[in-house]
Each structure stands twice: as C-alpha cells, then as structure tokens.
Amino acid sequence: MKKYYYGAWQNFYNLNWPVCFFIELVFLSAAIFLICKALKKVGSRFGLKQYLVKGWVWIVTELIYLIGRDRAWAVELDNRMIEWGNRAAEHTGAKRRTRRKWFLGVGAVVIYLLATFVDLPFAKHLQAYYLSELGHVKSFFQRYEQTLSRGYEKYPPLFVKSEPVEETEEETEEQTEEAVLIYIQLNEKGQSGANIRQEPSLNGAVVGGVDGQSEIRYQNQWEHDGERYWIKIYIPGDDIEGWLSGNLIDSIQLEEIVNEEL
Questions:
Q1: Alpha-carbon distance 121 to 119, whole Å?
Q2: 38-54: average pLDDT
Q3: Which residues have CB under 8 Å from 8's CB, separation 6+?
Q4: Sorting pLDDT into bands at 50, 70 and 90, what band is 222?
Q5: What residue spans define the domains of the chain?
Q6: Backbone φ, ψ for residue 223 (5° rounding)
Q7: Global pTM?
Q8: Residue 175 contacts by C-beta under 8 Å, 6 or more apart in sequence?
Q9: Which carries the bigger pLDDT value, residue 32 or residue 248?
Q10: pLDDT tier at 227 (50, 70, 90 boundaries)?
Q11: Is the pLDDT of residue 91 over 90?
C-alpha cells in the first residue's frame, strides 16, 4: 500500500499549489466529518456522548496550552472550550449545529485563501510586506505537506502520461541541464523570508516568496540595476520563475555567479 500512497504523491506534486491545497482541504474536511459522525453514532448507541465530549475538550485544551501557554487568547479560548463542553454534554439544538457547520465552512475557506493567496491572480494588488507574511503562511502548510510525503521521490508516479517515444534528444538535453543545476543559498536575512519579483527591480510585482526551506534554482541569468544585483531563479515546488535580490543571497556564492559570467 505504501508504494501506491507515495506514487500518488508523485502525481500530486505536478499540480499547482492552489489545486493541491484545495484537494488536501477537501480530504481533511471529509475525514473530520466522517470521524465526527462515527463518534456521534457510537456515543448515542452506547450512552458515551458525555465522555466523548469530555475527551475532546481535554485534547483541545491540552493543545491550546502547548501552543499558547499563559497568553490571554489561550486562556479565553480554553474557558470557552470548557463552557462549550458543558453545553454539548447536554442536548444541542439543530439551529446551533447549523451555525457550527457554517462556522467550520467559513473557517476552511479563510484557511485556503491565506495559504494560497500569493499564487492567486489578484495577489499582485497587495503590498509586498503583506505578501511576504502570507508567503510564510504558505510555507507553514507546505512543511507539513512535505512531512506527509517524505520519501515519495523513491517511487515512480502512480499515473503516467501517454506520450510518443521520440524523446531521446530532449532527454539528453534535460540530463545535461540537470547536471549543471546551481541551487541558490540564502543569507541570514533571506532565510527569514524574501520576495520573488517579476522584473529585476524593487518596483517589480511580487510573484511569490522564499525562505530557508525553499529549493531555489539559478536560471543562468543576472542583472545589475546600478544599485544591486538581481538573480533570475526558479522555484520547482511552486512552479514560479522570477528575480531575487542579490542582497538576500550568500555573498560568496553571489560573487562566484557574477565573476563566472564576466
């Protein structure tokens, strides 16, 4: 079963990030819905509803404590969760259940927009500062996605495209290109988060973001705008190509790139 799981991840990573995350969110929502339904049936059948509610409240409050510790929002959320548990142990009306479903649905939409905003067409209208912050949200979710799929590279894709077999020359060209790939190393400032721009200028539109976890390929092209160097890069995980400021790249590597082509 493991090979089918990782083979599916191979195909999954060929999709655009917004599509990938939408599918993940749908599967996660369906899993939560089915688990809640199953627990509800078990609770009502064997009279365990109050114990299931107490167990859920305990799990959530422990998570809140680990994340928030003694912060004000964590204490307030903890109190609300305990209050909800006391009410839920009794009968909950249909109106309140409907309200809860709407709340969960809207919450899922908000999470989706936050995680995929930098890849959506209207992201270019947002200020670079906010795009950088949203890029961190995207990186947060992608790190957990990579945890779920760790080791998938060892397995062939589950589905294969049927293509003509006259690709020998193209394959050799791709192999030679891969052999000379250069991966950009970010300096300390760049590792905390950096913007990718459409043009080699600070006025260029932001098309994405990178951080210390990103795989960044050098595209054998650089520019100098009179003030700083700009390096053309490609992010295979996000399928984004653009320009990265040389001020965010390791100084030794930047010097090697510039001197190599002089």
A1: 7
A2: 74
A3: 158
A4: very high
A5: 2-121, 169-262
A6: -135, 160
A7: 0.46
A8: none
A9: 248
A10: confident
A11: no
Measured in degrees and rounded to the nearest 5, phi and psi for residue 32 equal -65, -40
pLDDT score of 258: 86
The β-bridge partners of 232 are 243
pLDDT band at 181 (very low <50, low <70, confident <90, very high): confident
Taking domain 169-262, whether its CATH number is 2.40.10.270 is answered by no
State the amino acid at position 78 in one-letter form: D
Read off the pLDDT of each residue in 215-238 and give the average, rounded to a whole number.
Answer: 90
Q: With the C-alpha atoms ordered 111, 112, 116, 118, is the resulting torsion angle positive or negative?
A: negative
Owner of token pair 């990938």: 20
- HEC per residue, the chain: CHHHHHHHHHHHCCCCHHHHHHHHHHHHHHHHHHHHHHHHHHHHHHCCHHHHHHHHHHHHHHHHHHHHCCCHHHHHHHHHHHHHHHHHCCCCCHHHHHHHHHHHHHHHHHHHHHHHHHHCHHHHHCCHHHHHHHHHHHHHHHHHHHHHCCCHHHCCCCCCCCCCCCCHHHHHHHHHHHHCCCECCECHHHHCCEEEECCCCCCCCEEEEECCCCCCEEEEEEEECCCCEEEEEEECCCCEEEEEEHHHECHHHHHHHHHHCC
Q: Which is nearest to 194 in space by CA: 231, 245, 140, 235?
A: 245
* Amino acid occupying residue 235: I
pLDDT at residue 7, rounded to an integer = 84
Question: Which pLDDT does position 245 carry in this prediction?
Answer: 93
pLDDT (mean) for 213-217: 90
List the beta bridge partners of residue 210. Answer: 194
Report the Cα–Cα distance between both ends of the chain, in Å, rounded: 53
Q: Which of 86, 49, 79, 85 is nearest to 64 (CA)?
A: 79
